[in-house]
């Protein structure tokens, strides 16, 4: 399989997400690490993980010939069916599993209150609806129209509305990155990812901002101006870098399956190792991350054999065997 720039970036974002969930979003999850360099690194990479996902979604939207409400209809199936099916199974499994790190106390609010990392799917669908509605009034066809929407998204981002229901907060967080990706492709700022020097400069600047923030304290504020600046610099920098890597591109090829299913396999692996008294953090990390990547990739091939499973678990209307 040819290593494309987009698939490489997808693979990087997926790998970082798997590592993040193995280590744990908080000190009471995953490896239950309270401090140390691994906890600090996981915290620092907050400025890269989801901003890259958001930028990639916007960039692909910019490439798409289908726009507006017709695209929203397609995205409803692609995003909402997996969120409802896989997300619900995940929540129920975690609810009944002793020793799990995540529980929903009020099952009747499932998906009204986002379920774990599945908030991203709900937030992304909401963004597609917002952009379709906005473009029905004023399409993004120039830098001027883009700037108006981007400034508005930044103002809402910095206002940090605490409305978590239906992933509104997540949409607020992702929208500036989505719009930046849209500008990169639709407005031809860097549609071909061929500005490596500029990309390296932005990565260096973004990393410097994150290092400065980490020096101020161990926990980063996601909705702060410096974090937004760091996320925009890092995500756009890695996009413009145009990096190709065969291993990451292969991971990127299975990115959606990995995003959906990795938590089942990493949690099961961690609990199995714990049952065998193999609790050394680096051993758990070393075993769980490859399992969290390879097992969903294999599962994607199985799901692709059934039209029903492909539709409701992966959001694909037509079953399709993924290339290896």
Describe the structure.
The protein has 324 residues and is an all-alpha fold. It has one domain (5-314). It is 69% helix and 0% strand. It is built from 13 helices and no strands. The chain has helices at 5-23, 37-44, 49-63, 68-96, 119-137, 143-159, 168-186, 196-216, 225-241, 246-253, 255-275, 281-303, 307-314. Helix 1 (5-23) packs parallel to helix 11 (255-275) and helix 3 (49-63) packs across helix 9. It is globular and about 60 Å long. The protein starts with a helix and ends in a 10-residue tail after the last helix. Residues 319-324 have low confidence and may be disordered.
Keywords:
single chain; disordered C terminus; 0% strand
**Roughly how many Å apart are the termini?**
7 Å
Low-confidence spans: 319-324
How helical, in percent, are the residues? 55-70%
Mean pLDDT: 91
How many DSSP helices? 13
Describe, in short, the structure shown:
This protein has 324 residues and is mainly alpha-helical.
Describe the protein's topology.
Elements: H1 5-23, H2 37-44, H3 49-63, H4 68-96, H5 119-137, H6 143-159, H7 168-186, H8 196-216, H9 225-241, H10 246-253, H11 255-275, H12 281-303, H13 307-314
Helix pairs in contact: 1-3, 1-10, 1-11, 1-12, 3-7, 3-9, 4-5, 4-11, 4-13, 5-7, 6-7, 7-9, 8-9, 11-12
